[in-house]
């Protein structure tokens, strides 16, 4: 597991979405009914459980439905079908609740603008949640905007605006924190500080959902992953479990120098070769199998090995593995919102 | 924190942002010219209006000067609030606000109050100036009830145009559509309503524009109830006994309530269904 240790608490569910659905209305004007519309893309038949103290990476290509899903979770978009069950407080007893009270939501791009100051902007949102000014000042210090508290919003840089969005999401001490592409616009220092902040919040029991189309950014942070494509949840679970299920685990890259004959060196070693390259006395092999056996075989053959590392799957590999589609199909379909999920929807999208 | 307090704080943010914004600085000279400027002109003791009419008391002057409200202040109300929601949608702030545990109806109310106050504060200040101008030039104050009706009906017409602009803003995906809708509604009721009245009169076989024809006066009076500007003038006319267009005081106030409640409810409903 690449994330931080799972605790016992993490198994506790916080929110459960059962067969949840929200599909956007798409205009379909007709001669006598120019305002007519139909159900278009969105989220379909979603079963997802958020766990206490877990960081869930919501991964999918552009247009997959990540933002729609986060908006559903934040209570901004209503569930057209299905239900959401809360275990946030002991009194909830699995009942439906107003999500907005417990969920902090950070949208992808917020252009904070105007002549009001940073603190005033946060205070206005705080008033909507009943957060006092002391907590707001604490949040500004937490995201590194304490010195800018009296600065007008118009004077903030993109990175500062992103920090302010993070502070706004944390108003009211949410039990679930939804972050839509939170690393956009953050410099490396701020990104690292943000990662540490996420880990601290998760250790305190906050359930965190981070959406991104950059899987690499998330692998050191998340302990669960949800693969989403064309409005469907393709797979969800602990990162290592999903990798195993999709045959994306145990992948390694080994590189070295000198003459090499992979066939003879690896004779009798059970591996699945994924890529081999030899160029100017430098070679590289990417395989799936037992790394110890492979390494021992190279040592026996007295071949110079310069590097050896596990290979994490990228977004396209995740999606190809989850959908069973080719790279070409996946990449072509990413841009298309004309059709909706295939795995569970089956029928037509019109209603 | 009580619900009302939340609404008050959100409205105060809107007011602060817009009252001292650049848009207001551009509009202020227009408002000055239209409101105290018209009061100055119509209170001239030597003024002769078309038809040889001469305003005889303070309320009559304020009635004529109300054209400045209809032409200038309502336009400013639209221009201040046309992007009340669409701007937040474009910047992503709408999503942040809708994610807060404050009912959307209350958020809508806060927006209405915020934008309404933004136009109301300068207009009321300039109306005070108008009263002083009328007092200085005519040596007469309007009565207390006349003043209350003048201020109240002005507040209402500004509320209606603020509501129209905000409703347009809920459906506009970009600022151009929002401003086109807001200005379009303003243009329709301010300039084209006369055309609608004329067409209805023509269709009804009533001679058009005959100020002394009771049928034309009655028709115009009745159709004016269907226009916010017309209702505004009906409200002011309740304090002018010389003007009789066949509309009872209660009818004018009832329509004022209708013009307030229906767009308010529409905005609430639009807000409930709003997608960021």
Structure description:
By secondary structure, chain A is of the alpha/beta class. Chain A has 11 helices and 13 strands. By secondary structure, chain B is an all-alpha fold. Chain B has one domain (3-272). In chain B, 76% of the residues lie in helices and 0% in strands. In chain B, α1 packs across α7 (104-138). The interface between A and B is medium-sized, with 34 and 25 residues.
CATH class of the largest domain in chain A: Alpha Beta
Mean residue pLDDT of chain B: 90
Could you say how many structural domains of chain B there are in total?
Answer: 1
Low-confidence stretches of chain A: 1-9, 334-351
CATH topology of the largest domain in chain A: Rossmann fold
Q: Name the helicity range of chain A.
A: 25-40%
What is the SS-derived class of chain B? Answer: mainly alpha
Largest interface: A-B, 34 and 25 residues
Summarize the structure.
The complex is a heterodimer of chains A (about 350) and B (about 280). Chain A is α/β, with parallel strands linked by helices and about 350 residues long.
Write the layout of secondary structure elements.
The complex is a heterodimer of chains A (351) and B (276).
Chain A: E1 13-27, E2 37-51, E3 55-59, H1 66-73, E4 81-86, E5 103-106, H2 118-129, H3 133-142, H4 158-169, E6 176-180, H5 188-203, E7 207-212, H6 215-218, E8 224-229, E9 232-238, H7 239-245, E10 251-257, H8 262-265, E11 271-279, E12 282-289, H9 291-300, E13 304-310, H10 315-323, H11 327-334
Parallel strand pairs in A: 3-7, 3-8, 5-6, 6-7
Antiparallel strand pairs in A: 1-2, 1-4, 8-9, 10-12, 10-13, 11-12
Helix pairs in contact in A: 2-3
Chain B: H1 3-19, H2 22-34, H3 36-42, H4 58-81, H5 86-91, H6 93-98, H7 104-138, H8 144-171, H9 175-204, H10 214-224, H11 228-237, H12 249-272
Helix pairs in contact in B: 1-7, 2-3, 2-4, 3-4, 3-7, 4-7, 4-8, 4-9, 7-8, 7-12, 8-9, 8-11, 8-12, 11-12
């Amino acid at each position: 597991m690449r994330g931080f240790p799972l605790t016992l608490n993490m198994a506790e569910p916080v929110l459960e979405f059962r067969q949840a659905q929200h599909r956007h209305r798409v205009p379909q004007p007709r001669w006598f009914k120019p305002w007519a519309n139909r159900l278009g893309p969105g989220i379909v038949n979603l079963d997802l459980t958020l766990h206490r103290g877990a960081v869930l990476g919501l991964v999918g290509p552009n247009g997959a439905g990540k933002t729609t899903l986060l908006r559903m979770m934040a209570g901004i978009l209503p569930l057209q079908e299905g239900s959401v069950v809360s275990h946030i407080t002991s009194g909830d007893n699995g009942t439906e609740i107003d999500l907005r009270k417990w969920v902090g939501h950070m949208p992808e791009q917020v252009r904070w603008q105007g002549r009001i100051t940073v603190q005033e902007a946060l205070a206005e949102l705080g008033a909507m949640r009943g957060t006092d000014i002391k907590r707001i000042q604490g949040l500004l210090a937490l995201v590194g905007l304490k010195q800018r508290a009296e600065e007008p919003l118009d004077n903030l840089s993109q990175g500062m605006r992103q920090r302010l969005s993070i502070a706004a999401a944390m108003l009211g001490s949410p039990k679930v924190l939804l972050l839509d592409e939170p690393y956009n616009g953050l410099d490396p220092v701020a990104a690292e500080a943000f990662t540490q902040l996420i880990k601290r919040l998760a250790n305190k029991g906050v359930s965190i959902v981070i959406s991104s189309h950059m899987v690499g950014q998330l692998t050191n942070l998340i302990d669960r992953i949800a693969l989403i494509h064309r409005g469907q949840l393709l797979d969800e679970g602990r990162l290592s479990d999903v990798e195993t299920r999709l045959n994306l685990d145990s992948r390694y890259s080994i590189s070295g120098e000198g003459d090499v004959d992979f066939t003879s060196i690896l004779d009798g070693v059970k591996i699945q070769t994924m890529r081999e390259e030899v160029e100017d006395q430098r070679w590289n092999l990417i395989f799936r199998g037992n790394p110890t056996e492979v390494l021992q075989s190279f040592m026996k053959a007295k071949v110079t090995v310069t590097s050896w590392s596990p290979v994490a799957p990228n977004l396209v590999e995740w999606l190809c593995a989850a959908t069973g589609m080719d790279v070409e199909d996946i990449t072509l379909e990413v841009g298309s919102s004309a059709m909706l999920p295939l795995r569970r929807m089956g029928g037509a999208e019109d209603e | 924190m009580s619900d009302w307090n939340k609404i008050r704080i959100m409205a105060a943010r809107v007011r602060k942002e817009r009252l001292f914004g650049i848009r207001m600085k551009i509009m202020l000279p227009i408002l000055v010219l239209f409101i105290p400027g018209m009061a100055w002109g119509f209170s001239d003791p030597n003024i002769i209006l078309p038809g040889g009419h001469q305003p005889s008391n303070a309320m009559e002057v304020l009635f004529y000067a109300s054209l400045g409200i209809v032409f200038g202040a309502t336009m400013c109300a639209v221009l201040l609030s046309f992007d009340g929601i669409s701007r937040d949608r474009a910047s992503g702030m709408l999503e942040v606000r809708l994610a807060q545990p404050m009912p959307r109806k209350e958020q809508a109310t806060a927006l209405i109050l915020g934008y309404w106050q933004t136009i109301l504060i300068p207009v009321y200040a300039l109306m005070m100036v108008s009263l002083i101008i009328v007092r200085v030039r005519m040596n007469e104050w309007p009565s207390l009830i006349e003043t209350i009706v003048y201020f109240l009906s002005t507040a209402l017409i500004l509320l209606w145009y603020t509501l129209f602009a905000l409703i347009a803003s809920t459906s506009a995906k970009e600022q151009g559509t929002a401003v086109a809708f807001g200005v379009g509604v303003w243009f329709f009721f301010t300039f084209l309503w006369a055309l609608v009245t004329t067409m209805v009169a023509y269709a009804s076989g009533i001679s058009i524009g005959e100020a002394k024809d009771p049928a034309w006066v009655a028709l115009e009076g009745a159709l004016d109830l269907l226009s916010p500007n017309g209702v505004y003038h009906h409200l002011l006319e309740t304090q002018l006994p010389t003007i009789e267009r066949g509309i009872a005081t209660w009818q004018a106030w009832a329509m004022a309530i209708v013009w307030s409640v229906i767009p308010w409810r529409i905005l609430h409903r639009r807000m409930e269904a709003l997608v960021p």
